[in-house]
Structures are given as structure tokens and as C-alpha cells.
Amino acid sequence: MDVLQLDVSGRPQAWITTREAAVIYASDGVAWTLGDPCQVLRGGLQRISGRQSRIEVHPIIAVRGAVPSRAWRQAPALSNAKLFVRDRFICAYCGHRCLPEDLTREHIQPTSRGGQDTWMNCITACRPCNGRKGSRLPEEAHMSLLYLPYVPSLHEDMILRGRRILADQMEFLLASVPSNSRLHG
């Protein structure tokens, strides 16, 4: 299970392990938490009291301090795995839902014709449709898009990374995802 790390303003920063979260707790770096504790880590015995130390790790923690510059990037990194989840494993041309191994990253404007490898130029396509379109524009191949591409928000990107997300974490992330996002449906 991973912990969702936020900055103090509530902006998602990263998925971290419970051990990494424990280090932040131990160094008094947690500003606030959300959700019920999801794991309890136990340490050694205190010499004076004889009590065992313990840290209750919450599924969402906000960390004190400066915000890393990576949090302010404009667009999340594009990968096939995240693209396929964004598009719900559905081919943008024929509308069939496919297994990941049967899908490809399709460039609306082919890279051979100056198209960029960006969220706004890439959609999910099944192998047959991608082959049929080839290095043509959709209108040249007489193939229309069933949905349009978009750049995921930072909150959507945290969902698209394919982690096992706990209910508290998903609720927090989806609350900031635009209502027209395909991740809602």
C-alpha cells in the first residue's frame, strides 16, 4: 500500500511507501493527515517507560516545507499505460474496449508529418485501426475520433499512475478531477 503525499496546500506530490511516510512522521514533517490510519508500524522499546514506539500511518499525508519544483510542471509525463487508462482502454476509432496488449499509442497528426508526442496529439487505438489509419490524418483515412484527447490534471495523473488506491485516497483525488473527465465514468 502506498501513501499519497501532498504539500501543505493539499496539492499531490507523490506516491510514497509506508516506510518513507514513517520517516516523515518521525522527523515531525507531517503537517496534517486525512483518512483513518491504514497501517501501524512498531519500533523498539523506550528505555525509560518500557513502551514500544509506534507510528500510525494515514493514507494521505501533507508534508511541511518547500514545494518541490516538479509539482508545478504543466503536463504530466505521457506513457502508454497512463494513456490507455485515460482513454478507458477504448479505441478512439472503432470504440472497442481492448486489453492493453492489443492497444497502441496513436498520433492524430502522425510524427512523420510533424505531429508531437503529447497528450493532445495522442489517443488510444486498437492495432487494426492504427494500421488502417497509417501515416494519414484521420480525415484522410475517413476515420473519425469518437472522443477527443485532453491533458490530465495533476490529480488525474496521480490516479493514472496505476497504483492500488485506497477509498480515502480516491475520494480525495476525484474531488479535484474535472466532472467531464473520463475517470469519473
UniProtKB/TrEMBL annotation:
InterPro entries: HNH_5 (IPR029471), HNH_nuc (IPR003615), NA-targeting_endonuclease (IPR052892)
Keyword GTP-binding found: no
One matching Pfam family: HNH_5
GO terms, molecular function: endonuclease activity
Location of the HNH nuclease domain: 80-131
SMART domains reported for this sequence: HNHc
Keyword Plastid recorded: no
Organism superkingdom: Bacteria
Key words, A-Z: Endonuclease, Hydrolase, Nuclease
Protein name: HNH endonuclease
Organism the protein comes from: Pelomonas dachongensis
